Amino acid sequence: MRTLNSRQRVVMTFTFFSMFFGAGNLIFPPFVGAQAGASTIPAAIGFIVSAVGLPILGVLAVTFADGFDKLAGRVSPKFALFLGIAIILTIGPCFAIPRTATTSFEMMVVPLVPDGSKWIAQLLYSLLFFTLAFLFAQHPEKLSKVLGRFMGPLLLVLIAVLFVACLVHGIATAAAPSGNYQTNQMARGFLDGYQTMDLLAALYFGIVISANVHALNVTEESQVQRETAIAGLGTGVLLILIYGALSYVGAVSGSIITINANSDTGATVLTNLTSTIFGTAGTIFLGIVFVIACLNVCTGLICTCATYFHTKFPTVAGHTVSYRAWQLAFTIFSFVVSNAGLSLIIKVSVPVLSALYPISIVLVLLAITHTVFAARFPRVYFWMVLLVGIVALIGCVASLVTVFGGSLPWLESLLNMLPLQQQQLGWLTPSAIGAVIGVIDSLRIAHRAKS
Asked: Within 137-195, where are the H helices?
């Protein structure tokens, strides 16, 4: 039976890591460290538990369920298709892909160009950015040759340089915890890690990694699953190390320049640090880090989206649509959105993402416990997803109304009746109720089948 050697597994891990680690992953941990200050360690632990733990559990759950479609299909096949399309579009051309170009442009180019020429600079930059991403994503099964062997290691080296510079600089006096991190730093870090939304991407990145494993002549499906899981676990280790390092970077930055948690961002934290340590060159250095991180993620997302749609919709209106055609469509759409309508897309997408996340968490937890629990009571899939989905949909509607300037006080009051709703964990109660109903329903069906 063909297996990957140690070098190939390292390359596959770097590929997986590169697909995960974008601008959001780069700026969240420093922002945590800058706010937590002297309490960075417990805050970082909480952040890592959710920001790394949930996505890696997602990778393992999907891998051993033999794909997200089969996992979601335990609810129903139509539900699997609907949820799959919703996740792919929100983590792809409607949100994450355009954001990779816009964020890297803001960090790399905006500080270097006059305000009057910003629009033409953004047009040219995004054209180059998406052209490179399109070229890198031509062959998803060969993505490890680009990300795993070159782009991923380069990004790690640049982050290591930043971390070493912080170690040399040190912290004279750690800042006092501020903003949301004045109390309960570990719990706050957990909630902020939950907001990275990496779990949604994790549910489908396995498609691309599996294709790369197949390209290395691993043909037995069980071994492909095993190698994908190993790459996922390796990615988890890398993310833990880097999130820990970047949290320390944030603590150093916060000790140099105090931030305003209400108006500043993780990008501000990094900019303050690099400009202090490296001077003018720091802006360029940080911009390069952002460009590489964003280009990696953009490439991975284009591969994932195009692969999914090519698999699900090989023909449209009687015409064959190739992987390359889907890839081109997603690239062009993302290019247009990044230049024309990203702000509105983001405002609309965030409530949708927040609705999809609890449903995905429930599916992953059920998959992880499938052998000991869910397989014995199969109806828990339906009832837990149904009740969590209802609450998530209500929350999505309320948020969308707010985005467009309206309000539904009665709906918000209804949601606030749920325990832990203020901590964005209101879905836990419906999921517990769904589990109880699912067990009872499963026993009822089993009893009827016997009689």
From this structure: 143, 152-169, 185-194
Nearest Cα to Cα of residue 15 among 145, 138, 199, 189? 145
User: Which residues in the chain come in under a pLDDT of 70?
Assistant: 1, 141, 143-144, 148, 341-346, 451
* Cβ partners under 8 Å of residue 78, min gap 6: none
Mind listing the pLDDT tens digit for each residue in 41-95? 999 999 999 889 888 888 888 887 888 888 999 999 999 999 999 888 888 888 8
Helices (H), 257-279: 266-278
H or E segment at 319?
strand 319-320
Residue 177 Ramachandran class (φ > 0 left, ψ -120 to 50 alpha, else beta): beta
Query: CA torsion sign, 84 to 218 to 326 to 138?
Result: positive
Count CA atoms within 13 Å of residue 450 on its CB side.
6
User: 6: how many CB neighbours lie within 10 A of its CB?
Assistant: 7
Phi, psi of 316 (to 5 degrees): -135, 125
The pTM of this model reads: 0.83
**pLDDT for the residue numbered 202:** 82
The rounded distance, in Å, linking the Cα atoms of 245 and 268 is: 17
Q: Are strands 319-320 and 315-316 parallel, antiparallel or unpaired?
A: antiparallel
The rounded distance, in Å, linking the Cα atoms of 218 and 212 is 9
Cβ 254 vs Cβ 37: under 8 Å? yes
User: What local confidence, expressed as pLDDT, does residue 416 receive?
Assistant: 86
Helix (H), strand (E) at residue 320:
strand 319-320
For residue 262, the model assigns a pLDDT of 77
Q: How far apart are CA 380 and CA 430, in angstroms?
A: 12
Neighbouring residues of 183: CB distance < 8 A, sequence distance ≥ 6? 177
Q: How far is 197 from 191, CA to CA, in rounded Å?
A: 11
Q: Is 425 helix (H, G, I), strand (E, B) or coil?
A: coil
Take residue 214 and report the two structure tokens written for it: 């197949």
